Amino acid sequence: MEVILLERVEKLGQMGQVVKVRPGFARNYLLPQKKAMRATKANMAVFEKQKAHLEAMNLERRKDAEQVASQMNDVSVVVIRQAGETGVLYGSVTTRDIADALVAAGYKVDRKQVSIASPIKTLGLFKVRVVLHPEVSVAVTVNVARSQEEAELQLARGGMVTAADLRDEEEEIEEAPEATETEDSEQA
């Protein structure tokens, strides 16, 4: 089935291109989402009349998306999840979880805009792509941790923190006050 793209569709084409796609893809995704219209002579004429208006709307949406992308540059969100000793999650982090974390951080993002390359099933730092416009996307760092303290430690170290690392960190904190007490008694 041939369709006329009304906006840029990733891995398919630019606005105004006539592309051949499978009928199910056109019928179930492109046409209902108003991303394309059937490539008939009548629709080609309608598209040519609306082309300037569609391009202007697309340019306006792109400018808005670029403005939001500049605000979201180097954004990091924390997702708290339960995990085993080895760092494997009891479940996975979904696009909805990441979108909710971004909304809580003050950004207007829909779960459909979040693109995860592979399922997130372990603790650690992950780069996730947020598509704000078909031509504008931004990388967001998702910090998956068991607690807020662990998330801060992961961010400082730049990677996953194991249970042993947390115990070592707690031991260092417990040993530090003893050292300052002995220094105070030596000064007196």
Q: How do the helices and strands line up, and which of them pair or pack?
A:
Blueprint: E1 2-5, E2 18-20, H1 23-30, E3 36-38, H2 41-71, E4 76-80, E5 88-93, H3 95-104, E6 114-115, E7 120-122, E8 124-133, E9 136-145, H4 148-157, H5 163-187
Parallel strand pairs: 4-9
Antiparallel strand pairs: 1-2, 1-3, 5-7, 6-8, 8-9
Low-confidence stretches: none
Total DSSP E strands:
9
Assign the CATH topology of the largest domain: Ribosomal Protein L9, domain 2
Give the full name of the CATH homologous superfamily of the largest domain: Ribosomal protein L9, C-terminal domain
Mean pLDDT: 85
**N-end to C-end Cα span:** 88 Å
Note down, in words, how this protein is organized:
- With 188 residues, the chain is an alpha+beta fold.
- It folds into 2 domains: 69 residues, 3-Layer(aba) Sandwich (Ribosomal Protein L9, domain 1), CATH 3.40.5.10; 90 residues, Ribosomal protein L9, C-terminal domain (Ribosomal Protein L9, domain 2, Roll), CATH 3.10.430.
- It contains 5 helices and 9 strands; from the N terminus they run ββαβαββαββββαα.
- The strands form 3 sheets. It has a 4-stranded mixed β-sheet with strand order 4-9-8-6, sandwiched between helices.
- A hairpin with a 2-residue loop joins strand 8 and strand 9.
- The N and C termini lie far apart (88 Å).
- The mean pLDDT is 85.
Main features:
9 strands, alpha+beta, 188 residues, Ribosomal Protein L9, domain 2, 4-stranded mixed beta sheet, single chain, Ribosomal Protein L9, domain 1, 5 helices, elongated, 3-stranded antiparallel beta sheet, 2 domains
